Amino acid sequence: MGNSHGHHHHHRNEANSYFPHQTPTPTPPPFKFGPSDHHQHQPAAQFQNNSTMSLPYAHVDCSLRALAGQAEGFGRLAIGGLHGPLYHVTTLADDGPGSLREGCRMKEPLWIVFEVSGTIHLRSHLSVSSYKTIDGRGQRVKLTGKGLRLKECEHVIICNLEFEGGKGPDVDAIQIKPKSKHIWIDRCSLRDYDDGLIDITRESTDITVSRCHFSSHDKTMLIGADPSHVADRCIRVTIHHCFFDGTRQRHPRVRYAKVHLYNNYTRNWGIYAVCASVDSQIYSQCNIYEAGQKKMAFKYLTEKASDKEEARSGCIRSEGDLFITGTQAGLMTEAGEHSMFHPSEYYPTWTVAAPTDNLKQVLQHCTGWQDIQRPADQPVAAQHQTRRRRELIA
Predict the structure, then answer these.
(1) What's the Cα-to-Cα distance from 219 to each of 168, 170, 199, rounded to whole Å?
(2) How far, in Å, CA of 5 to CA of 342, rounded?
């Protein structure tokens, strides 16, 4: 780690206030943000020594269970099936022995891996129970027909899968409701569902979505159910290093929740990039917004909370975002009535880089399903020793 530099960030609309347009040579290295001593939670940047652009989580493929507890952001506690045996998916059948559905319904912790590649046609929502890792590394598995439903569950990790072609009303690729928590969705490709790609509603919280590729879709991500569901104020979501690739809207659309967006690349949306609705707080940090025909990145929708007298929209704070190809931020003047969280109130560090052309290239090629080998499984005890050594080195 390099030296720590304290930055007093002024919240301005222009990305140039933070990172002037220059040829990105050498590439600005990623850095860790963490809290400083300033009362206003100004983040301090600790620059890493490496000069090449890399996404977070370089270490999680060193062994099978190295994913557990490694998410950045609100989903950082998700351990999935860390303490359970391996479950081997040996068939592409919708149900029955060796199927994904059978593994997901079991009540004990399981680390689910695939011995087959191909498409699983889901005839109904596939419910995932607590303490499960669905780990697609080493194979190419696509889910279609219906999607995953995370209902009243906790500690679920979903990694390296494809979702495409979900049909029917209320059919989302991944539906997280109600009251689920400690969820991490990483490195998945999602496209072309009849409803949403990822919906997080009805008091589900502490969720991270990272390194995912979203394409060929309309209503991409919804966070917060509807204006009457005021209990969704508990929702907290981190979305980082994702590629929203020509999807139409909802990157995400947010009601009530606290959402931290960083180092995402959103391009060529059809209506808007990010929407803040009733009482939401969206912290947009070092993202790249590249408009097509529709130029406005941020949209505000006013709705009335059932426990408030007046209708309100939400609040978006943009810090270090890059708006290109004529993109207009659409930032509202911050009103005093709107409160805004800072991520450092909830987690100590996260890896973020300047929103350069280099980051854009990396996100185009390194998000979504990846053709990578399934790592070897190490005993959990060895896993913890490795993590402890890493913490001591850091």
Answers:
(1) 14, 12, 10
(2) 18
DSSP 320: S
Q: In angstroms, rounded to a whole number, what is the distance separating the alpha carbons of residues 211 and 250?
A: 17
Beta strand residue intervals within 62-131, DSSP E: 86-89, 110-114, 118-121, 126-127
CA distance linking residue 87 with residue 64, whole number of Å: 13
The pair phi, psi for residue 129, each rounded to 5°, is -90, 170
Query: What single DSSP character describes residue 133?
Result: E
Q: Say which of 202, 250, 253, 312 is annotated catalytic.
A: 250
Q: In the numeric block, which tokens belong to residue 381?
A: 């005890």
Q: For the segment 102-123, what is each residue's pLDDT rounded down to a tens digit?
A: 999 999 999 999 999 999 999 9
Interior/surface letters 166-187, b for 16+ CB within 10 angstroms, e for the rest: beeeebbbbbbbeebbbbbbbb
How many Cα atoms sit within 13 Å of 95 on the Cβ side? Answer: 8
β-bridge partners, 319? 285
CB burial of 214-224 (b: ≥16 within 10 Å; e: otherwise) equals bbebbbbbbbb
The yes-or-no answer on residue 250 being catalytic is yes
Separation CA 319–CA 92 (nearest Å): 45
Determine the Cα–Cα distance for residues 152 and 181; give it in Å rounded to an integer.
8
Three-state DSSP at 12 gives coil
User: Distance between CA 91 and CA 115 in Å, rounded?
Assistant: 8
Do 195 and 219 contact (CB within 8 A), yes or no?
yes
Q: Pick from 128, 117, 127, 167: which is nearest to 144 by CA?
A: 167
Maximum Cα interatomic distance, the chain, rounded to a whole number of Å = 58
Question: Phi/psi of residue 345, each to 5°?
Answer: -70, -15
Predicted confidence (pLDDT) per residue in 241-275, tens digit:
999 999 999 999 999 999 999 999 999 999 999 99
